[in-house]
Write a structure and sequence with these properties.
It contains 19 helices and 5 strands. The longest helix is centred in the first third of the chain and has 32 residues. It is mainly α. The protein has 2 domains: 194 residues, Orthogonal Bundle (Preprotein translocase SecY subunit); 191 residues, Preprotein translocase SecY subunit (Orthogonal Bundle). The strands form 2 sheets. A 3-stranded antiparallel beta sheet has the order 4-1-5. Strands 2-3 form a two-stranded antiparallel sheet. Helix 6 packs across helix 7 and helix 7 crosses helix 13. A hairpin with a 2-residue loop joins strand 2 and strand 3.
């Protein structure tokens, strides 16, 4: 770790990027404690502690504890993620959006602008639903979360929540552009990590009170370590396709024939599928707040509560779908095959052009299925822990996948910056290197 910090400090640009990202995340964590006007966060905290997990616990997880604080950041980054899902689906369904996506940087900027507008629109809808839900809690024996219910409170609440989500979106984009790592993923990462100390404290209190036996605690710790090891293994796993380059002339110089590899990640979609799937499963709860008397919606929300069989089944289906969908959106096998042909390379035993693209698609589909099963298995683990071992928070699964996945992705970006400045690896010339990267990769 000392070598890592020393090497980062030696690269001014990288040091500034890391410090900028940390500063933006610090601002985000400070904003979590800015409460929406007109609410009592202590009453809300008592309610969240009494309810434990469930849907509200899942929303609170992705908002970094902002829901429990009734913060202006209570909606978290989910409206932006939902808007991104809609725009990415439109790129496949609507030809005009697909053409815009292929126009390069200008087209992507336009789509990003539409995503921001969609984020604001969804924030208004979800903010209204949350305001109505908070007012409905006044009838409970909690002392009332909202001091002065009415349209005035609703308007102020929606304005505060929309502004908060828009600010988080801006923070994430600034981190991506001027910092290090993916800004949106780092915002979610920061929220999950911030809740870890209190979660560990709760677990220790349950152990000291005898509610969780020591053997069960050891088993939980072993499971957490095992899940982290599985995540690291699969996030680094690749299927390497052998590519052979014929002898060719480059800049009037003859380049000898050589072999290389085309690395295909087992999990090309990263942590996007579980985040997208969770966002969609939260949508029925938003509609139920607008129509509290609709028995059908209430039944759907109850069936899709975390821990239920229907929730787990839908969660797995959506994760598998988004693994394939996001991989198809971000990985263009036709372009890869065309670039190999132009560079004089060919997959061993496969004809160049269309056959190469079909071969890459076939291999990618098979390994993506394995990656989807891996993500699904990891993400349903929290439900099993909560049901069978009475774990008081969202241990493992989705949270561990996001934390470990984002940490590995950020570490690889830092390593890339260091390597580009003539540093051999993340920890210096004799330091460790991230698995899955070799000098002969294409």
């Amino acid at each position: 770790m000392a070598n890592v910090l020393q090497n980062i400090a030696k690269v001014p640009e990288l040091k500034n990027r890391v410090l900028f990202s940390l500063a933006m995340l610090a601002i985000y964590r400070i904003g979590v404690f800015v409460t929406v006007p007109g609410v009592d966060r202590h009453v809300m905290a008592d309610y969240m502690n009494s309810k434990g997990g469930g849907l509200m616990g899942l929303i609170d997880l992705f908002s970094g504890g902002a829901l429990q604080q009734v913060s202006i950041f209570a909606l978290g980054i989910m409206p932006y993620i939902s808007a991104s899902i809609i725009l990415q689906l439109l790129t496949v369904v609507v030809p005009a959006v697909e053409r815009l996506n292929k126009e390069g940087e200008a087209g992507r900027r336009k789509i990003n602008q539409w995503t921001r507008y969609g984020c604001v629109f969804l924030s208004i809808i979800q903010g209204t639903a949350l305001a109505i839900w908070l007012e409905g809690m006044n009838s409970a024996a909690l002392g009332g979360v909202v001091h002065n219910a009415g349209w005035g409170f609703r308007a102020l609440c929606v304005l505060s929540l929309t502004a908060g989500t828009t600010f988080i979106m801006w923070l994430g984009e600034q981190i991506t552009e001027r910092g290090i790592g993916n800004g949106i993923s780092l915002v979610i990462y920061a929220g999950i990590v911030a809740g870890l100390p209190s979660a560990v404290k709760q677990t220790w209190e349950l152990v000291t009170n005898g509610q969780i036996p020591v053997p069960i605690l050891i088993l939980i710790g072993a499971l957490v370590v095992a899940v982290i090891a599985v995540i690291v293994y699969f996030e680094s796993a690749q299927r390497r396709i052998l590519v052979q380059y014929a002898k060719r002339t480059v800049n009037r110089e003859t380049v000898a024939a050589a072999n290389s590899y085309l690395p295909l990640k087992v999990n090309s979609a990263g942590v996007i599928p579980p985040i997208f799937a969770s966002s969609i499963l939260m949508f029925p709860a938003t509609l139920a707040n607008f129509f509290p008397d609709a028995s059908f919606l209430v039944g759907v929300v109850n069936a899709l509560s975390p821990g239920r069989i229907m929730y787990n089944a839908m969660y797995v289906v959506l994760i598998v779908f988004f693994c394939y969908f996001y991989t198809a959106v971000t990985f263009n096998s036709v372009d890869i095959a065309d670039n190999l042909r132009k560079g004089g390379g060919a997959v061993v035993g496969v004809r160049a052009g269309k056959d190469t693209a079909e071969y890459i698609d076939r291999v990618l589909s098979r390994i993506t299925f394995g990656g989807a099963l891996y993500i699904s298995s990891v993400c349903v683990l929290p439900t099993l822990l909560q049901t069978n071992f009475n774990v008081p928070f969202y241990y493992g699964g989705t949270s561990l996948l996001i934390v470990v996945g984002v940490a590995m992705d950020t570490a690889k970006q830092i390593e890339s910056h260091l390597i580009s400045r003539s540093y051999e690896s993340f920890g210096g010339e004799k330091g460790p290197r991230m698995r899955g990267r070799r000098s002969d990769d294409v």
